[in-house]
Amino acid sequence: MGELLIHRRVPRILVVDDNPDMAELMRELLITRGYEVVTVRNADDAETEIKRHAPDLILSDVIMPGRSGYELCAQLKEDPATRLIPFLLITGLSDREDKVKGIEAGADDFLNKPIFPAELFARVKSLLKLKEFTDELETAESVLCTLGRSVEARDPYTEGHCERLAQRAAALGRFMGLDEESVTALWRGGYLHDLGKIAVPDEILKKGSDLTPEEWEVMKQHPLTGENICKPLKSLRLVLPIIRFHHEHSDGSGYPDGLIQTQIPLLPRILQVVDVYDALRTRRPYKPAMTHEQAERMMRTEAQSGLWDEELVGQFFAMLARRQVA
């Protein structure tokens, strides 16, 4: 039997330092450990390089012409696209306040000058291992989102449903001024909310209406199934309530727990409003699609009767009116 060869991707490290001798020293040291190394001289060039090809780790000097290493770090950590890239600040400053400033900027680690190779290698290895774990989590989330789409694909009448929910729920979260972590949870919730339907047989899932009591009991289990599938991933902790509670109703008539009003967390209530709108606007075998105006009238009436969160319904249609999206 031939030997099985596993080719691992070479980690890519970006070194940001205006001192060419220091940058070259770190490049040569890191190359000896098999890393791919790119050097740039300032924060602007670093930003350009990151957009061109995102690195696995950034090593940056603190004091540079233009933006400092602190400013570069803070900017990258505020951007969802780059905040998970480990950032190591290299400094000749020993003042505790300088290190606190780096922590506040979001730096993952520090390295003091002069550089000792053994310390450099140890810190780089540790941060790259952290990045590897983060990438594995992102891959797991991607697989779950793909599963969510596969559930959607089982019903031809729900094509594009997950993507529409993700976009509109995240947009409503931003419209309401929620923090970025909550907006991200709403986006993920759009794809994962019905993941538990993977355990619902086709003959029930595609029936759509007139379910028997026994079939309805099977259907009502899908929020719990989806929650259990996603529960091992701690990164999805804010998504779990969305999955479990998005079929609860403010009047207590929903499932699986029969919660009422504010017993239902905010994020599931947001996704629920978007979900109801999409269902009303989608044609099904047992009903035609409603117009935007018809859906709004029905949802506002049902919210007034206590079925949905009336304030959130108002916020949703205010957002659609402002964005002119229906």
**Helix/strand/pairing category:** alpha/beta
> SSE order in H/E notation?
EHEHEHEHEHHHHHHHHHH
Shape: elongated
Round the mean pLDDT to the nearest integer and report it.
Answer: 88
Strand content: 5-15%
CATH third-level topology of the largest domain: Hypothetical protein af1432
Q: Strand order of the main beta sheet, please?
A: 2-1-3-4-5
Low-confidence stretches: 1-7
Rg, alpha carbons: 25 Å
Number of domains: 2
How many extended strands? Answer: 5
Distance between the termini: 60 Å
> What is the number of helices?
14
In words, what does this structure look like?
With 326 residues, the protein is α/β, with parallel strands linked by helices. It folds into two domains: 12-134, Response regulator (Rossmann fold, 3-Layer(aba) Sandwich); 154-323, Hypothetical protein af1432 (Orthogonal Bundle). It is built from 14 helices and five strands. It has helices at residues 20-31, 43-52, 69-78, 96-105, 117-153, 161-175, 180-192, 202-205, 213-219, 222-230, 240-245, 266-280, 292-304, 310-323; strands spanning 12-16, 36-40, 57-61, 87-91, 109-112. A five-stranded parallel β-sheet has the order 2-1-3-4-5, sandwiched between helices. It is elongated.
Summary of the model, kept short:
By secondary structure, this protein is an alpha/beta fold.
SSE blueprint and pairings:
Layout lengths: L11 E5 L3 H12 L4 E5 L2 H10 L4 E5 L7 H10 L8 E5 L4 H10 L3 E4 L4 H37 L7 H15 L4 H13 L9 H4 L7 H7 L2 H9 L9 H6 L20 H15 L11 H13 L5 H14 L3
Parallel strand pairs: 1-2, 1-3, 3-4, 4-5
Helix pairs in contact: 3-4, 6-7, 6-12, 7-12, 13-14
